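Quarterly update from the structural biology core.
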Amino acid sequence: MKCYRAAAVLLVVVWGLGSTLAARAAPAPGSSYASDFAAFAKEVDQRYPFLDLKGIRADWDRAKKELAQRAGQCQSDEEFLGIVYDAVRTLRDGHMGVARSRARRPEFPVRYYPGVSFLPATNGRVVVMVAPEAYAATLKTGTVVTKIDGTDARRYLDDRAKAAWSGGGFFSSPERAALFEYRIALRGQKGEKHTITCLVDGQEKQVDATADLAARGWPHTYHRPEGLKRVGRSFYYAKLDGDVGYVYLRRVDRSAAPGIDEALKAHPGVVGWIVDLRGNGGGGYDAALIDRIKRFPRPVAVVIDAGCASAGETLARDFRRYADARLFGSKTAGSSSSKRTWTFPSGIASLVIPTRSRWRADRKPIELNGIDPDVQVEAVPEEVAAGKNSATLRAKEYLLREAGETRRQ
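Predicted structure, tokenized:
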């Protein structure tokens, strides 16, 4: 009996000692998250290629210290993923993000806007691109906006764009940040009030607008040609008056090659082709599509803007390279890179991390710099109000001019 009791006492002592040692050896709350974030910060410091290109090294150095402290106090996988997303915002990269995770991704607060979208216009103006029904009677497409909340409209939106780039986000260039401030304008808390001053019959008129629409997605077109024929998910084409061919490509996907074949076969005698890549979200393509680009009848005019990203940007570059295309519009998104997958040591998540930029013809990286147009085009309010698309007009004028020159030779 004494032996039994002695063994029991010894077992209790050993169990208690083991529990104490286990408690001492157990990681402190947040320690695994701290080591995961430290590994990610080291990966960025050593291998992320765009810190100096984007001039954000100092921003990253400041942010990673604060984010590391948060990771050390982190209590859940979801909270840690929120820290990761904040890190990605600091790095301002449209391609970096969570590929997979073992935890539910954090829910970000929904931001709201009045539903009004704007375009930068000629002579430092701002023009309405689209407005919801509640404001459409006054804020018609093409209406000039002179002030927002009492401040010059162009300065107001440009200042918001600068602040957005400075604050970081899921974009790779100031131009892309500006696109969102114009297209998903006046984002904030639900119910926020704004005053939009516009010109109606030459007189200024104020419109009170409320941020009550969830900011999901963004408008990317205005006054597209009528009668577009669709091929697959993303390819559209038509023949415009003046005998000009028109192609609109929303994404670079499997629609592109058969779409080009069908469009060229349907309209073999046009004087030239407009290829509209505005708002193109990217995708991918191979040598087969390059071969089709080479077969485009000259002249070719490509229309671009900061909505054109990733493979859309390299496609614009390749139309210039292989079809002698002239580019119209504004600079592209500056978001084009090769990527790899990196996994946190604990396995909590894997990230897509860019490794290098793709290149422009002048050997500058597309990342941040984007593709520059040959002809800068801003919306002309009078044209937009008349139901026309200014960039499409400039491209069409070029094609008709080139065709006329060819006929005279």
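The two ends are 117 Å apart (CA to CA).
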